[in-house]
Amino acid sequence: MDVQDARAARPHRRGQVLALAAVAAVSAAVAAPTAVYAAHRFSDVPDDSVYASAVTYLNDRGVVRGCGDGSRFCPQDGVTRGQLALFLERLSGNGAVPPSVNAATVQGMTAEQLRGQQGPAGPAGPAGPAASSHFAEVDAAGTLGARSRGVVSASRSGTGTYAVRFNRSIAGCVATGNVGDLDANAVGFIGEVTFGGRAPDTVLVTVANSSGFFDNSFMVVLTCPPAS
Known about the structure:
This protein is α+β, with helices and mostly antiparallel strands. The protein has helices at residues 20-31, 52-60, 81-92, 111-114, and strands at residues 18-19, 78-79, 134-138, 151-158, 161-166, 174-179, 192-199, 202-209, 212-213, 218-223. Helix 1 (20-31) crosses helix 2 (52-60).
Protein backbone atom coordinates (compact mmCIF):
# COMPACT_ATOMS: atom_id res chain seq x y z
CA MET A 1 0.00 0.00 0.00
CA ASP A 2 1.67 3.28 1.14
CA VAL A 3 5.47 3.13 0.80
CA GLN A 4 5.90 4.88 4.15
CA ASP A 5 3.10 2.91 5.76
CA ALA A 6 4.60 -0.55 5.04
CA ARG A 7 5.11 -1.33 8.69
CA ALA A 8 1.40 -1.00 9.33
CA ALA A 9 0.34 -2.73 6.12
CA ARG A 10 0.24 -6.36 7.21
CA PRO A 11 -3.21 -7.12 5.83
CA HIS A 12 -5.65 -9.30 7.64
CA ARG A 13 -8.89 -9.83 5.77
CA ARG A 14 -11.10 -9.61 8.84
CA GLY A 15 -9.23 -6.43 9.82
CA GLN A 16 -9.80 -4.67 6.52
CA VAL A 17 -12.36 -2.20 7.83
CA LEU A 18 -12.56 0.33 5.02
CA ALA A 19 -11.61 0.75 1.40
CA LEU A 20 -9.08 3.53 1.00
CA ALA A 21 -11.32 5.20 -1.53
CA ALA A 22 -14.05 5.42 1.11
CA VAL A 23 -11.61 6.87 3.66
CA ALA A 24 -10.45 9.47 1.16
CA ALA A 25 -13.97 10.41 0.11
CA VAL A 26 -15.29 10.70 3.68
CA SER A 27 -12.23 12.59 4.91
CA ALA A 28 -12.40 15.02 2.05
CA ALA A 29 -16.11 15.55 2.57
CA VAL A 30 -15.37 16.62 6.14
CA ALA A 31 -12.14 18.50 5.62
CA ALA A 32 -12.03 19.76 2.05
CA PRO A 33 -13.80 22.74 0.55
CA THR A 34 -15.87 22.15 -2.55
CA ALA A 35 -13.45 22.57 -5.47
CA VAL A 36 -12.32 20.98 -8.74
CA TYR A 37 -8.71 19.93 -8.47
CA ALA A 38 -6.14 19.72 -11.26
CA ALA A 39 -5.07 16.35 -12.65
CA HIS A 40 -3.65 14.22 -9.82
CA ARG A 41 -0.37 12.37 -9.84
CA PHE A 42 -1.46 8.70 -9.47
CA SER A 43 -1.60 6.62 -12.66
CA ASP A 44 -4.46 4.39 -11.45
CA VAL A 45 -6.87 7.18 -10.46
CA PRO A 46 -8.78 8.42 -13.53
CA ASP A 47 -9.36 12.16 -13.70
CA ASP A 48 -13.09 11.60 -13.94
CA SER A 49 -13.33 9.21 -10.97
CA VAL A 50 -15.63 10.26 -8.15
CA TYR A 51 -12.74 10.23 -5.67
CA ALA A 52 -10.04 11.91 -7.82
CA SER A 53 -10.28 15.32 -6.15
CA ALA A 54 -10.41 13.73 -2.69
CA VAL A 55 -7.27 11.69 -3.35
CA THR A 56 -5.43 14.77 -4.61
CA TYR A 57 -6.51 16.83 -1.60
CA LEU A 58 -5.31 14.21 0.89
CA ASN A 59 -2.08 13.56 -1.00
CA ASP A 60 -1.30 17.28 -1.15
CA ARG A 61 -1.53 17.38 2.63
CA GLY A 62 0.55 14.27 3.28
CA VAL A 63 -2.33 12.18 4.59
CA VAL A 64 -2.02 9.48 1.87
CA ARG A 65 1.19 8.86 -0.10
CA GLY A 66 0.46 6.16 -2.66
CA CYS A 67 1.45 2.52 -2.89
CA GLY A 68 4.33 0.57 -4.46
CA ASP A 69 6.83 3.08 -5.79
CA GLY A 70 4.42 5.94 -5.02
CA SER A 71 3.18 6.35 -8.59
CA ARG A 72 -0.05 4.42 -7.92
CA PHE A 73 -2.81 4.83 -5.36
CA CYS A 74 -4.21 1.27 -5.40
CA PRO A 75 -7.81 2.46 -4.88
CA GLN A 76 -9.24 -1.09 -4.81
CA ASP A 77 -6.92 -2.37 -2.06
CA GLY A 78 -8.18 -2.86 1.46
CA VAL A 79 -7.08 -0.76 4.44
CA THR A 80 -5.70 -2.37 7.57
CA ARG A 81 -6.41 -1.04 11.04
CA GLY A 82 -2.79 0.10 11.26
CA GLN A 83 -3.04 2.12 8.04
CA LEU A 84 -6.35 3.61 9.17
CA ALA A 85 -4.70 4.73 12.42
CA LEU A 86 -1.97 6.50 10.43
CA PHE A 87 -4.49 8.28 8.21
CA LEU A 88 -6.52 9.49 11.18
CA GLU A 89 -3.42 10.69 13.03
CA ARG A 90 -2.32 12.68 9.99
CA LEU A 91 -5.78 14.19 9.56
CA SER A 92 -5.85 15.25 13.23
CA GLY A 93 -2.60 17.19 12.97
CA ASN A 94 -1.13 15.40 16.01
CA GLY A 95 1.80 14.05 14.02
CA ALA A 96 4.18 15.72 11.60
CA VAL A 97 1.37 16.61 9.17
CA PRO A 98 -0.50 19.92 9.82
CA PRO A 99 -4.28 19.66 10.51
CA SER A 100 -6.25 19.13 7.30
CA VAL A 101 -9.36 21.10 8.27
CA ASN A 102 -9.96 23.79 5.66
CA ALA A 103 -13.32 25.44 6.20
CA ALA A 104 -13.69 28.66 4.22
CA THR A 105 -16.75 29.69 6.25
CA VAL A 106 -18.56 28.76 9.45
CA GLN A 107 -22.33 29.16 9.23
CA GLY A 108 -21.77 31.30 6.16
CA MET A 109 -19.29 33.67 7.84
CA THR A 110 -15.61 34.09 6.97
CA ALA A 111 -12.84 34.24 9.56
CA GLU A 112 -12.74 38.03 9.24
CA GLN A 113 -16.49 38.26 9.83
CA LEU A 114 -16.30 35.92 12.81
CA ARG A 115 -13.53 37.93 14.50
CA GLY A 116 -15.00 39.92 17.39
CA GLN A 117 -18.46 38.41 17.09
CA GLN A 118 -20.41 38.11 20.32
CA GLY A 119 -21.12 34.55 21.35
CA PRO A 120 -24.43 33.28 22.65
CA ALA A 121 -25.61 34.52 26.03
CA GLY A 122 -24.78 32.32 28.98
CA PRO A 123 -27.26 31.12 31.57
CA ALA A 124 -28.88 33.77 33.72
CA GLY A 125 -27.36 34.19 37.16
CA PRO A 126 -29.22 34.70 40.42
CA ALA A 127 -30.90 38.04 40.97
CA GLY A 128 -28.74 40.64 42.70
CA PRO A 129 -29.79 42.77 45.63
CA ALA A 130 -32.34 45.43 44.89
CA ALA A 131 -31.15 49.01 44.56
CA SER A 132 -31.53 51.08 47.68
CA SER A 133 -34.88 52.82 47.92
CA HIS A 134 -33.63 55.21 50.62
CA PHE A 135 -31.47 58.09 49.45
CA ALA A 136 -31.06 61.62 50.83
CA GLU A 137 -29.55 64.60 49.04
CA VAL A 138 -29.16 67.50 51.51
CA ASP A 139 -27.82 71.00 50.84
CA ALA A 140 -25.57 73.02 53.17
CA ALA A 141 -28.58 74.65 54.84
CA GLY A 142 -30.11 71.26 55.70
CA THR A 143 -32.80 71.38 53.02
CA LEU A 144 -33.83 68.04 51.52
CA GLY A 145 -33.29 67.77 47.77
CA ALA A 146 -36.10 66.86 45.35
CA ARG A 147 -34.28 63.74 44.16
CA SER A 148 -34.32 62.18 47.63
CA ARG A 149 -36.51 59.13 48.18
CA GLY A 150 -37.69 57.22 51.24
CA VAL A 151 -36.84 60.26 53.40
CA VAL A 152 -39.27 62.18 55.62
CA SER A 153 -37.14 65.21 56.45
CA ALA A 154 -33.68 66.71 56.89
CA SER A 155 -32.47 69.48 59.18
CA ARG A 156 -29.34 71.37 60.27
CA SER A 157 -28.74 71.72 64.01
CA GLY A 158 -25.34 73.42 63.96
CA THR A 159 -22.24 73.99 61.85
CA GLY A 160 -21.68 70.81 59.84
CA THR A 161 -24.27 68.92 61.92
CA TYR A 162 -27.42 67.48 60.35
CA ALA A 163 -30.22 64.97 60.95
CA VAL A 164 -31.85 62.86 58.21
CA ARG A 165 -35.11 61.09 59.06
CA PHE A 166 -36.18 58.11 56.95
CA ASN A 167 -39.65 56.60 56.51
CA ARG A 168 -38.69 53.32 58.17
CA SER A 169 -36.76 51.94 61.10
CA ILE A 170 -33.04 51.94 60.36
CA ALA A 171 -32.27 49.07 62.72
CA GLY A 172 -29.86 46.68 60.98
CA CYS A 173 -29.25 49.14 58.11
CA VAL A 174 -25.94 50.62 56.98
CA ALA A 175 -25.61 54.33 56.13
CA THR A 176 -22.98 55.48 53.64
CA GLY A 177 -22.42 58.91 52.16
CA ASN A 178 -20.07 61.54 50.87
CA VAL A 179 -19.55 65.29 50.77
CA GLY A 180 -21.11 67.03 47.78
CA ASP A 181 -24.22 66.40 45.71
CA LEU A 182 -25.19 64.67 42.48
CA ASP A 183 -24.19 67.70 40.41
CA ALA A 184 -20.91 68.76 42.05
CA ASN A 185 -18.90 66.59 44.42
CA ALA A 186 -17.54 69.45 46.57
CA VAL A 187 -14.55 70.16 44.35
CA GLY A 188 -11.93 71.90 46.45
CA PHE A 189 -13.29 70.60 49.76
CA ILE A 190 -11.55 67.94 51.81
CA GLY A 191 -13.98 66.42 54.24
CA GLU A 192 -15.97 63.36 55.19
CA VAL A 193 -19.41 62.36 56.33
CA THR A 194 -19.69 60.48 59.62
CA PHE A 195 -22.72 59.00 61.36
CA GLY A 196 -23.68 58.58 64.97
CA GLY A 197 -26.35 58.91 67.64
CA ARG A 198 -29.00 57.14 65.60
CA ALA A 199 -32.64 57.35 66.58
CA PRO A 200 -34.98 54.51 65.41
CA ASP A 201 -35.58 56.24 62.07
CA THR A 202 -32.98 59.05 62.00
CA VAL A 203 -29.31 59.27 61.04
CA LEU A 204 -27.22 62.06 62.57
CA VAL A 205 -24.65 63.38 60.10
CA THR A 206 -21.53 65.50 60.63
CA VAL A 207 -19.45 67.06 57.86
CA ALA A 208 -15.86 67.91 58.82
CA ASN A 209 -12.25 68.12 57.73
CA SER A 210 -8.96 68.67 59.56
CA SER A 211 -10.00 72.24 60.39
CA GLY A 212 -13.26 71.18 62.05
CA PHE A 213 -16.95 71.12 61.16
CA PHE A 214 -18.22 73.02 58.15
CA ASP A 215 -21.52 73.40 56.34
CA ASN A 216 -21.72 71.62 52.98
CA SER A 217 -24.09 69.59 50.88
CA PHE A 218 -23.91 65.80 51.30
CA MET A 219 -25.60 62.56 50.25
CA VAL A 220 -26.65 59.57 52.34
CA VAL A 221 -27.62 56.11 51.12
CA LEU A 222 -29.34 53.74 53.51
CA THR A 223 -28.82 50.03 52.75
CA CYS A 224 -31.03 47.65 54.68
CA PRO A 225 -31.39 43.83 54.73
CA PRO A 226 -34.32 42.45 52.69
CA ALA A 227 -37.58 42.13 54.53
CA SER A 228 -38.11 38.63 55.93
